[in-house]
Amino acid sequence: MARVFDRRGSQYLESPSTAGILGPPFWVALWFRVDEWWGEQALFFLGSRQTLQSYYAVVAKEDGTIAAVSVGPTDGRGEARLADPLEGGRWYPAVACWPSTQRRSIHLPAGQALHEGRVAVPYVDRLAVGRFSTALPSGYLSGAVARVCIGVGSPTAEQIEAILRGVDPRLVFRLGVLRVFLPLCGGDYDVLGRASFVAGGMPGWDKDPLSVTPSAAGLVIPSGTEEQHYRWASTKAGQVFVPQALAGQVQVPGVQAGMIWG
């Protein structure tokens, strides 16, 4: 399942709580589908109430490319942008990273891009999906977003690869790393309990299961019904989130059945 947004209806999700994301290093993972390429659409936005023109964002551009963007109040704009355009109407997983104010990167199965250049964003306390903020109404999304995850620190190449293969982020990272996770399976809730989201403009629901594009074709992400069967399990390394199907098989961090732990 996923949340579907129509820019003509000014549809979005927003939370005043950012679960302690104060700035780099942090990263965002999400699934997205763009149904209509136009302007610069916000898939994800993390910004400041005090300085609305200052933010971090994952954006879809008019030419079909995706970028990780930083905009600062005094030092302008910097972005890491993937040059190859994507197809409309198809699902893609993405991971955007901000390891420092000097660097940002965007990762899709097709490749990655890095950008150097300082852009310092103030304290952030506004989080949105499907638009930039109330200050930038032109940035609404025409498409869908699912499985939004925010974490602190800098993920490894192996962890990024796992997310792009469709592995649940709760199977990839320790709980202390994850700050927000929105499965968007029948509700706008953060399963980690740190953020509270409200929907604006009555966005719809896409009930079809997600599949990885373009790599690992055929890998299907759990539907909303299956998501309800997840449970917490405890290991020597701390708590991890595991499907019911893996109950009793959780080990200390390492690699098990192709999934990365820790």
Fold and architecture overview:
The chain has one domain: Jelly Rolls (Sandwich), CATH 2.60.120. It has helices spanning about 155-165, 225, and strands spanning about 1-5, 10-15, 25-35, 40-45, 55-60, 65-70, 75-80, 90-100, 105-110, 110-115, 125-130, 145-150, 180, 200, 205, 230-235, 240, 255, 260. It starts with a strand and ends with a strand. About 45% of the residues are buried. The strands form four sheets. Strands 1, 3, 8, 9, 10, 12, 13 and 15 form an eight-stranded antiparallel sheet that branches. The protein has a seven-stranded antiparallel sheet with strand order 7-6-5-4-11-2-14, with no helix packed on it. Helices cover about 5% and strands about 40% of the residues. The chain is built from two helices and 19 strands.
Mean pLDDT over the full residue set: 78
Enter the CATH topology name: Jelly Rolls
- Give the second-level CATH assignment, the architecture: Sandwich
Overall form:
globular
- Write down the Rg: 17 Å
Number of beta-strand segments = 19
Count of separate structural domains: 1
State the low-pLDDT regions, or none. 213-262
**Classification by helices and strands:** mainly beta
* C-alpha termini separation: 27 Å
Question: Which features characterize this protein?
Answer:
262 residues; mainly beta; 8-stranded antiparallel beta sheet; 2 helices; 19 strands
Summarize the structure.
This protein is mainly β and 262 residues long. Helix content is 5%, strand content 40%.
Task: Give the SSE map.
Elements: E1 2-5, E2 12-15, E3 26-34, E4 40-47, E5 55-61, E6 66-72, E7 76-81, E8 92-100, E9 103-108, E10 111-116, E11 126-129, E12 143-152, H1 157-164, E13 178-182, E14 198-200, E15 204-206, H2 224-227, E16 231-235, E17 238-242, E18 255-256, E19 259-260
Antiparallel strand pairs: 1-12, 1-15, 2-11, 2-14, 3-8, 3-12, 4-5, 4-11, 5-6, 6-7, 8-9, 9-10, 12-13, 16-17, 18-19
